[in-house]
Specification:
Elements: E1 20-22, H1 29-39, E2 42-48, H2 51-61, E3 65-74, E4 82-90, H3 93-98
Parallel strand pairs: 1-2
Antiparallel strand pairs: 2-4, 3-4
């Protein structure tokens, strides 16, 4: 009997593509962010084009969210423009009141 073994690329434990919230113009990502912040320690969001400004504006308004990591880069096809990836976490309730 011949066994075929497939090479599988290891997935980073911190992030899988299903863990990233892709932000779009309709704003449904705000509800997803709120839900995930209740169950997870950190949440990653990605945005392209003008939506990245909406994302940053929303995060800046929220006093209970802390930006841990912010990455920008041009997409493989330059027409898509600049991409933004943000990793955030919820600030504990007692700390958010003192800010």
């Amino acid at each position: 009997m011949n066994h075929v073994t497939a090479k599988v690329k290891p997935v980073r434990q911190n992030e899988k593509s299903s863990d990233i919230i892709f932000c779009d113009k309709d704003g449904k990502w705000k509800e997803q962010l709120q839900r995930r912040l209740q169950t997870r320690e950190t949440v990653s969001l990605a945005a392209l084009g003008e939506v990245r400004y909406d994302l940053l504006r929303h995060l800046r308004k929220r006093k209970d969210i802390e930006i841990i990591k912010l990455e920008t880069r041009y997409m493989k096809t330059r027409e898509k423009g600049l991409g933004l990836k943000v990793t955030v976490r919820k600030i504990p309730h007692d700390k958010s009141e003192s800010i």
